[in-house]
Design brief:
Its main location: cytoplasm. The chain is mainly α and about 170 residues long. It is built from two helices and no strands.
């Protein structure tokens, strides 16, 4: 039973570590997205100052294409994040159902243990009664044996007296 608890504890710790890793990755993705946006904004500001209108237009078109690619990449990352969240949710649900199953099992085992304790207490009580009865019977038999030995002794004495009296007659 302790092994099952240990295995469950290890599994819970593993799932917790996975969840923390996923949260960290989400934070990192968010930070990267912010950096990309800042970089884009900085690039746009620099381009406006350095290039002429024609070059600016060309650069903007290139940047727009890059931004579209980044937006697609961001969408892909969001989908991945959604998949990860769904997986984590399923793992949490599985974990909860496993916890409920274990709680039920522990409750059943506790009840079974309680019943066994009651049975042991009943057996111990009966054993105590039987022991007292045996002691009483042994005492009674000892008394009867002592009485019989006394009667045997008295019989032998009387027999010996009878024999002695017969000889005298």
């Amino acid at each position: 039973m302790e092994v099952a608890f240990s295995e469950m504890r290890n599994e819970l710790q593993s799932q917790d570590a996975l969840w923390r890793k996923i949260q960290l990755e989400c934070q990192q993705l968010h930070a990267e997205l912010l950096k990309i946006r800042e970089y884009r904004d900085m690039q746009e500001t620099q381009i406006k100052h350095q290039l002429s209108h024609a070059q600016l237009t060309e650069q903007l078109e290139n940047r727009t294409a890059e931004l579209l690619l980044l937006a697609q990449s961001e969408e892909h990352q969001r989908e991945e994040l959604k998949k990860i969240r769904n997986h984590v949710y399923q793992e949490e649900q599985s974990h909860r159902s496993e916890q409920e199953r274990m709680k039920t099992e522990i409750s059943d085992l506790t009840e079974e243990l309680h019943q066994k304790e009651i049975t042991i207490a009943t057996i111990m009580e009966k054993a105590g009664l039987l022991e007292r009865q045996l002691k009483m019977e042994l005492e009674l038999k000892d008394k009867l044996l002592a009485k019989q030995q006394l009667l045997d002794f008295q019989y032998k004495v009387i027999k010996s007296e009878n024999t002695h009296l017969k000889e005298m007659l």
